[in-house]
Amino acid sequence: MPARTDFVEVRGSALLKAPLRVSGEYRRPDADTLVREVREPYAETTSIRTGAKPGQGEVSIARAGKPPRRFSLSRAPELVALQASFGALLGGDRAELERHYALAAQGTRRQWSVTLTPKDAQVAARVRAIVLLGRDDELRCIETQPARGSEQQRTLLGAAARAAAAVGDASQLAALCRSHGPTR
Length: 184
What we know:
Blueprint: E1 3-11, E2 20-30, E3 33-40, E4 44-49, E5 58-63, E6 69-72, H1 77-91, H2 94-100, E7 101-107, E8 112-118, H3 121-124, E9 127-135, E10 138-146, E11 153-157, H4 158-163, H5 170-177
Antiparallel strand pairs: 1-2, 1-11, 2-3, 3-4, 4-5, 5-6, 7-8, 8-9, 9-10, 10-11
Helix pairs in contact: 1-2
């Protein structure tokens, strides 16, 4: 089933004076494809498409005025888990999530979190955990904790991403993630 959601992604880095803020839209046009379209502060479209067999999938990254770069998913196994995770999240497929991650849920229906710990060693070498934060039936935020370093990546989705348009402060963005921000 096709699905789409707005996103705002905030990434910290010791090399930057301020966190990098990227916004756009995630789309899942079919069960085998995840598209991340960045609109601000630059234009870039990344498509992750799985193949019928492991290792057959492809990633394509397109920027205006440049030919698309393509590479095999076998070079980036964490993207296979990411693509499968989004599909499982959007489709409510717990079994598929559990193929790739150990799950730990907490909270209430009103305000909840699910921590995904990668099972694959190659993915775990890059990502310590992914924390999904939501309110009611809405996934509001994905916090990705790197295996090394402390600079987590925060991706606000849907209503939280739209509310983040007027927010610049990192603590206010965290509050939107953690469901203390405006309601839908």
